[in-house]
Amino acid sequence: GIQVEQSPPDLILQEGANSTLRCNFSDSVNNLQWFHQNPWGQLINLFYIPSGTKQNGRLSATTVATERYSLLYISSSQTTDSGVYFCAVGDYKLSFGAGTTVTVRA
Amino acid sequence: EAGVAQSPRYKIIEKRQSVAFWCNPISGHATLYWYQQILGQGPKLLIQFQNNGVVDDSQLPKDRFSAERLKGVDSTLKIQPAKLEDSAVYLCASSLDPSRGAKLFGPGTRLTVL
Fold first, then answer.
1. Which segments of B1-114 does DSSP mark as H helices, in order?
2. How confident is the model at residue B97 (pLDDT cuts 50, 70, 90)?
3. What is the pLDDT of residues B18-37, one digit of tens each?
4. Up-side HSE of residue B112: CA atoms within 13 Å toward CB?
5. What does the DSSP assignment read for chain B?
6. Closest Cβ opposite residue A48 in set B41, B99, B101
7. How many other CB atoms sit within 10 Å of the CB of residue B71?
C-alpha cells in the first residue's frame, strides 16, 4: 500500500508564528487531502489538493505531485489552530499519515 | 448541506459484548467508508462500499466485525464480540466519486471496551 510520512511529528508554536507541515507519499495518487482533527475527534477537511496550490484564510497548501510531497502552511497561528493535522492520499480510498500534533501557546 | 451523521457519539461496553454503529452519508454520495482510529494513530480503512456493494474489506477483521449498507444509503458497522483492542474512534466518511473529490467525515463514535 501507499506509505505516507508526515513531519514533524510534534510542533509547538507561539501565537502569531508561521509554520510548515510536510507530507511525503510513496506513489503517485489522484487524491490528497489535509485534515484538522478537533479536540472532539472530528476530521475537518481543510484542502482537497491533488496538485497545485490553494489558500483558505491563514492556511494554504501546495502539492507537487511529480515529486510526491505536499506542504501545509499555517500563518499567524492562533490557539484555535491547535490539534492534529493529517495528510491522507490515495486513489479510490485514503491512506493516512501518523499526523502532526500542533500546539499553539498564547 | 447536511454532513455525515453518526450515532451514537460515545459507547462504553464490556469485552465480549456486542455493539453497533450507524452512519448516514451525505445525500447523493454513493461511496461510504468506515475507518478505525486508535488513539495516537491515523485512521485506518476498515471497509468501503460503492452503493450497496463492498469494494474493499481487506482490513476488516471478519471474525468479529461486520458491516452492511442494504439500501445503498445508510450503513451499520457491528462488532461481536468486542475485545479490549477494539477501543477506538470509528469514523464514517462519504464521497460523491471515489476516484476524485473530497471524502467528508462524520463526527465519529468513540468506543471504550472495558
1. none
2. confident
3. 999 999 999 999 999 999 99
4. 5
5. ----EEE-SEEEE-TT--EEEEEE--TT--EEEEEEE-TTS--EEEEEEETTEEEE-TTS-TTTEEEE-TTSS-EEEEESS--GGG-EEEEEEEESBTTBS--EE---EEEEE-
6. B101
7. 9
Biggest CA–CA distance in chain A, Å, is 40
DSSP strand E in A26-96: where? 31-37, 43-48, 52-56, 59-64, 69-74, 83-90, 95-96
**What is the band of A38 on the pLDDT scale with cuts at 50, 70, 90?**
confident
Would you tell me how many other CB atoms lie within 10 Å of the CB of residue A1? 11
Cβ burial, residue A52 (10 Å; 0-12/13-18/19+): exposed
Is the distance from CB of B32 to CB of B25 less than 8 angstroms?
Answer: yes
A chain contacts of residue B102, beta-carbon cutoff 8 Å: 33, 45, 48
C-alpha–C-alpha distance, residues B1 and B4, integer Å: 10
**Which position has the grid cell 467525515?**
B105
Q: B63 to chain A nearest CA, in Å?
A: 23
